[in-house]
Write a sequence for this structure.
């Protein structure tokens, strides 16, 4: 069995159980999971695009909110020798699934020691490492404005100058929720959207719609400025979140 055949067989086996695992955890923890289905292939490929553009250069990569690994599977074969991949997932069931995915992935034996799954939130990740690429799968639409502000600030701190962040949101989800929500919930949705828009105006370099995803999604790509030698100064200019 050659490398491509082994990889295809492994991916099919993983996907057979992934959908069910994702659905069960979504029902149990919808606020932190944020969807009822994993990201589709087109969405995953777009989220991983900054790493693909850096190949074959070694990179430090951080994936946050990896779920059952739909984006992780795209990242793994793109990781060049000498690179580091940290996968952060707060859901214990998902983290266990991700460890199985990494340990069983074909032809990764020489990279295993440089790939780590961390069962925690990104706020709890302790590292002096700075990342070339951060891929976020967190459901910002479910969080408070303060949580979103803290996480976005953490991402920008963890990026090296010139490093890129990709994340996505589902098209129209905020409008639907706002229509159905109570006053405080609608206000929270509005404040999160306004907060992210301020980050977009300051840092965004691209935005794409993925209509074939279920549900359709929008991918944002942000870049930490090259002149950010010490990002702590820039944090004072970060937008203030409303509670």
């Amino acid at each position: 069995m050659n490398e491509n055949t082994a990889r295809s067989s492994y991916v099919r086996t993983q996907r057979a159980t992934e959908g069910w695992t994702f659905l069960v955890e979504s029902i149990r923890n919808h606020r932190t999971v944020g969807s009822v289905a994993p990201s589709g292939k087109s969405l995953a490929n777009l989220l991983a695009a900054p790493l693909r553009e850096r190949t074959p250069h070694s990179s430090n990569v951080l994936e946050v909110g990896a779920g059952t690994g739909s984006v992780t599977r795209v990242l793994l074969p793109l990781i060049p020798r000498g690179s580091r991949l940290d996968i952060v997932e707060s859901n214990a069931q998902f983290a266990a699934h991700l460890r199985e995915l990494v340990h069983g992935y074909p032809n990764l034996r020489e990279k295993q020691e440089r790939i780590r799954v961390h069962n925690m939130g990104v706020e709890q990740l302790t590292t002096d490492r700075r990342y070339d690429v951060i891929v976020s799968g967190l459901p910002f639409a479910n969080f408070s404005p303060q949580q979103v502000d803290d996480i976005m600030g953490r991402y920008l701190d963890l990026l090296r100058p010139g490093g890129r962040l990709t994340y996505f949101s589902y098209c129209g989800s905020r409008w639907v929720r706002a229509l159905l929500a109570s006053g405080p919930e609608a206000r929270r949705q509005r404040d999160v959207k306004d907060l992210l828009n301020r980050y977009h105006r300051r840092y965004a370099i691209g935005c794409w719609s993925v209509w074939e995803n279920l549900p359709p999604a929008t991918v944002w790509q942000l870049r930490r400025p090259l002149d950010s030698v010490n990002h702590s100064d820039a944090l004072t200019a970060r937008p203030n979140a409303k509670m």
Notes: The mean pLDDT is 82. The longest strand covers residues 159-170. Residues 68 and 94 are 5 Å apart (CA to CA).
